[in-house]
Amino acid sequence: MSLLESYILTSIKNLPLAAKTTIDGFMSGANKSAAKGTGMEFSQYRTYMPGDDLRWLDWKMFARSDRYYIRESETETNISLRLLVDTSASMDHRDGNYSKMEYARYLAASLAYLANMQGDSVGLYTLKEGGIFSLAARQGFQNLNRLCHELEQAGPKGKFTHPVHYKDIYSGGRKKELLVFITDMYQEKDEMYKLLDLLNALRHEIIVLQIMGKNEMTLDYKGYTTLEDLETGATIDIKAGAPKTYKDALAKHLESIRHELLSKRIYHRLLIMDQPIDEALRDFLYKRSKGY
């Protein structure tokens, strides 16, 4: 099954990726990226790759070498989308047709496709226990295919990335980006908040898409009486009357996450996995386009 499902792409193709942002020059439905061409400071050549814009082929280089080269400039695109995907073991939680990891893959691939279609560059970080995998933000369908391949190989296993690895995320990178963090917000010692604080300090705009299973929301596990933590292995028995207590505690927990992210000026959206992915994306993108 392809991550780029046609029914999802058809559903979101006419929606702007975002409307309000702190990134300079970002405008709803009129992204001013794709900034390569004549009249700009020349930087380097690179080998042509399928999916590259043919307008930037250097025909003089072709005449001299009989090979195709793309002429790149120093000018950066106005918009760069960076997808950060939680690949820890808690993302192996399953509800209905999807695990959280599968749901996250579809979300990320669809947003990457939309950014690519709008002419924006898109990159990827997969966050895992042993470190962070990085795919540079680029334009073109070859980059999109590579991103989807990496998503298919990603997790879920282990714990969330240790803060010691966070320093590697933007070492050498200064360009402001639109960051979409796809996660279940399962953390032991506020390690995710530390990550978000780092990204905030770099003045990126951040969106957190929190994925939860419907069975997590209702504590409905169809006859199971013992639950196991996918990351620590700890177990807990479900006792009579637990659902009511659990729901109250969960509501407070989700509200604390929402409040914490709001205090950091981070957009937060809770996605429940019983909602079809195309509907969840369409609803999220529509509300972003309206500024809420």
TrEMBL record:
The family database entries (Pfam families) matched by this protein are listed as: DUF58
**Sorted alphabetically, which Gene3D superfamilies does this protein's record hold?**
von Willebrand factor, type A domain
* InterPro entries, sorted: DUF58, vWFA_dom_sf
Signal sequence annotation? none
Domain spans labelled DUF58: 44-244
Highest taxon above the source species: Bacteria
In Swiss-Prot or TrEMBL terms, this protein is called DUF58 domain-containing protein
Native organism is Terrimonas ginsenosidimutans
Q: What is the lineage of its organism?
A: Bacteria, Pseudomonadati, Bacteroidota, Chitinophagia, Chitinophagales
